[in-house]
Amino acid sequence: YGKNTIKFLRLHKEGKKHFVKEVEVCAHLRLTSPQEYLEGNNSLVIPTDTIKNIVLVLAKKNGIPSLEQFAIDICNHFMTTFCQVAYVKTYVQEVPWQRLHEDGVPHIHSFICVPDGIRFCEAEQCRNGPLIVFAGIKDLKLMKTTQSGFEGFYKNEHTTLPERHDRILCGELFCKWSYGECKDFDFNCIWKKIRECILEAFAGPPDCGEYSPSYQKTVNSIQMHILSRVSQVQVIEVVLNNTFYNVVDMKNLGLTNDKEVLVPVEAPYGSCACTLGRK
């Protein structure tokens, strides 16, 4: 049991310069006894309102140096404070506020919300067990307008999809990875590096790109690039929900449409997923 969607903004000031972290937290506990379920005995139950207040107090006292460290702080607090807690799991996701720049100069107290992917993390721990930390990015929308195709696929009497050697590749990406044994990592630096790896693998070199023969191969290329560049990552899951675009037929309008006007296919949409880990 626990408390979901604990939303708050943590404001930190260094002189005139302000820093913000707006997050949403879910904190769940499992107690050593199920007596509240079986007998209606609530003597061991930590109220969910108390859970919410603890999260807010930890944000006030410790700040949020990184999402991962904040999730770790929450796990550590419940494990060290309450002997009746057998397991704790914490999920934290961040609202993507970025500092506003004016003529290249960073503003000291103004920010803009940029929808370029949502950062999240999870931390979980059993009593007398290891602390396990996951991190990730979701709702990251990516597109490239060429260097993508889909050919040579299996065909039977139900196949109507034509082969394409040049198409738009577009999708919404979910990526989640585990760190294995949690050490003194710079979680912020690692997260930024992984995000850069995702963009590099998806797009290819900026002057020419890189051909993708399928959504599946793109998913695997992203995973392999991350595992080769970021040694702290042990297992990585990538899900790519596809958005397809159809070329509008403009013959009746007396126009030739050479893939210049397209409409998205809202539903159904495809989805490719893979989990890859080190040996």
Automatic annotation (TrEMBL):
Binding-site list for urate: 48-49, 150, 167, 216, 242
Record: residues binding O2: 48, 242
Localisation: Peroxisome
Gene Ontology MF: a single term: urate oxidase activity
InterPro entries tied to this protein: Uricase
Record EC number: 1.7.3.3
Keywords annotated in UniProt: Oxidoreductase, Peroxisome, Purine metabolism
Catalytic reactions of this protein: urate + O2 + H2O = 5-hydroxyisourate + H2O2
GO biological process per UniProt: purine nucleobase catabolic process; urate catabolic process
Pfam families: Uricase
Positions contributing to 5-hydroxyisourate binding: 48-49, 150, 167, 216, 242
Pathway annotation: Purine metabolism; urate degradation; (S)-allantoin from urate: step 1/3
Similarity comment text for this entry: Belongs to the uricase family.
Protein's job: Catalyzes the oxidation of uric acid to 5-hydroxyisourate, which is further processed to form (S)-allantoin.
UniProt name for this protein: Uricase
Organism: Rhipidura dahli
Gene from which this protein is expressed: Uox
